[in-house]
Amino acid sequence: MDTEISRAGPATGEVHLPSALRAKVRYRSDEASVYLGIVHGLTVAMRTLDKYRSVGGGPRFQKFNRSALYHRDDLDTWALEKLGETKASTSE
What we know:
Blueprint: E1 6-7, E2 15-16, H1 19-22, E3 26-27, H2 29-40, H3 46-55, E4 62-64, E5 67-71, H4 72-83
Antiparallel strand pairs: 1-2, 3-5, 4-5
Helix pairs in contact: 2-3, 2-4
């Protein structure tokens, strides 16, 4: 899978996903790991997502046969919850 990151322009800050991820709404663990890294800058290994499915604390997922699929919106929601609110200083 091509994991190159390209930006729409220097001032926009928009991230362009690789074509393999752009066309999908639901991702397997390996793809979800790449998505979280590109879009949110979070390093979450595929194995960590697999572990979260059994112990809890990870993003919501759906089962299709034996596969776990992560919806893009659920990954975004989970990542933003993990990141928390932005702060102006450490005393907040």
